[in-house]
Amino acid sequence: MTRTMKLLTPIAVLTALAVPAFAQDAAIDVNGDGMYSFPELQAVMPEMTEDEFTALDSTGDGLLDADEISVGVEAGLLPS
């Protein structure tokens, strides 16, 4: 292994770890932005209410980010 490779390997590992471990489901995240909107979720979970979505949306931005999705999955409110 060259010196450059020895230096780049830890950087690559740290970069990979910085990316959220939770990969959003492409069947839900149809626009590929890495977040779930209420319409995206309701398309696959018609029983989800806007109030339930709002309860998961801890940032109040109208989208569920990776952390909010993880909480929802762990609580059994979102598909894993």
Task: Lay out the secondary structure.
Blueprint: H1 3-18, E1 36-37, H2 38-44, H3 50-56, E2 63-64, H4 66-74
Antiparallel strand pairs: 1-2
Structure characteristics:
mainly alpha; 80 residues; 4 helices
Overall description:
The protein has 80 residues and is mostly helical. It is 49% helix and 5% strand. It has a two-stranded antiparallel sheet with strand order 1-2. It is globular and about 55 Å long. Residues 11-23 have low confidence and may be disordered.
In short:
49% of the residues lie in helices and 5% in strands. By secondary structure, it is mostly helical. A two-stranded antiparallel ribbon has the order 1-2.
CA gyration radius, whole angstroms? 17 Å
Mean pLDDT: 79
Major beta-sheet overview: 2 strands, antiparallel
Distance between the termini: 39 Å
What is the molecular shape?
globular
Helix segment tally? 4
Structural class: mainly alpha
Q: What percent of residues adopt helix (DSSP H or I)?
A: 40-55%
Strand proportion, as a percent range, falls in 5-15%
Helix and strand pattern? HEHHEH
Secondary structure: number of strands: 2
Q: Can you list the strand order of the major beta sheet? A: 1-2
The low-confidence parts are 11-23
